[in-house]
Design brief:
The protein is mainly alpha-helical. It is about 70% helix and about 0% strand. Helix 4 runs antiparallel to helix 11, helix 7 runs parallel beside helix 20 and helix 17 crosses helix 21.
Length: about 425
Amino acid sequence: MTTQMILALAVLVLMIALIMFDVLPFGAPPILAGFLLVALGLADVKTAFGGFTNNSVVMIAGFMAVMAALQKTRFMTKLKEIMINLVTKGGYKSYAFLIIIVMAGAALAGGGSTGYYVLILSLITAIPYQKQLPTSKLMMPLGFATNHPLIPFNVALYFGVASTVLESAGWTGGMSMAKFSIVNFCLSLGFLVWALLAYKLLPDHPIQEPTVDQQKNADGLDVVTLTSTQENLTVVAFIASVVCMMLMNTIGDIAYVIPGILGFVLILAKVITFKEFRENYFAPVILMMAGVVGVADALANTGFTAMVGDTVAAALGTNANPFVVIFLFAVLTSTAACITGSNMGSVYIFAPIAVATCMALNLNPIAAAAAVTCAGWQGHYMPIDGLPALVFGMGKYSMKEFWKFTIPMYIIRLIFLCAGAVIIFPMK
């Protein structure tokens, strides 16, 4: 390892430790890590703090402001009432039903859709605390359920990545998209099994901070004070933001800024104040997401991740069990993505190595390409990027509470994913 690798790794470890032990307020450790990267000469200021101009961060920040406006509408109040009815009934059946509903919605929204998981998480935070089914028992399972479509028919992105990986490694046998979807179903099934088993392990505490100026009705819901014109404008802004986020690969950069522009439209329409916009746009969870991007880029630039992949490939030898080979690379890929925040980058580093390793062992590499590609979006056991960061922050969990759910979830999902890949795409 070079000196730069060691220093970058030390900064990463420090950042993770500060997050784990709540030494600094939520969102602060990555900012400190950025300062340290510049001070140690590992990155320039533009790289270290590039996350604040990162496309996804800008998009999510703007959407958070639009969501703040949506919370004031009768539309949101009605959705809350539906969820509250289930929560008020309480118990395991309501919990399981909510998970299935969210997973079914994920099939339509596309697994892992930013707009969809921000919507679901925002809905959960808006539900008043109910002893029968505390929202702290919902934030993690429902949040991660948005990443697992119950019927995964919208897998074009992941399938395209897996196909590209196979081709880049010299494999010309092709891959069935229908079978690839079944592998994704195995992954979703693994999540569902764990979520249903984990009910009693989830914590019981409020996740809302009561505010002095917020008016509530008898059911604990916000009193709507917007005019019908303001409400309609807010709903249109929300729908437009979600559509843009879902089409960002089609319409380009404009998709990332539309939520922010619509936030200003809502300010002009007096739906939200600039203070509300600012507090949501620069929320601690946004600072967390933005700050970690610079750390991820600095670590990747040192060549550390690539070095780890090469070392593991050499250590596997030629007699490894096929399932073990796939599982190991799935762990490496998901862990690299979890720590660095670079899902696609981690896949393109480890998946070709996994495919090449299988080919060297005279094994069919399609299962490896499918499993390792999907694994790139299945880290989630560290709250330092995107969905897990939002779940951790909005759910007000301790690291112990977070890990009690996410570490078993991580292991079970990968077992189902890799087993499904080996069964669907036989390697011998």
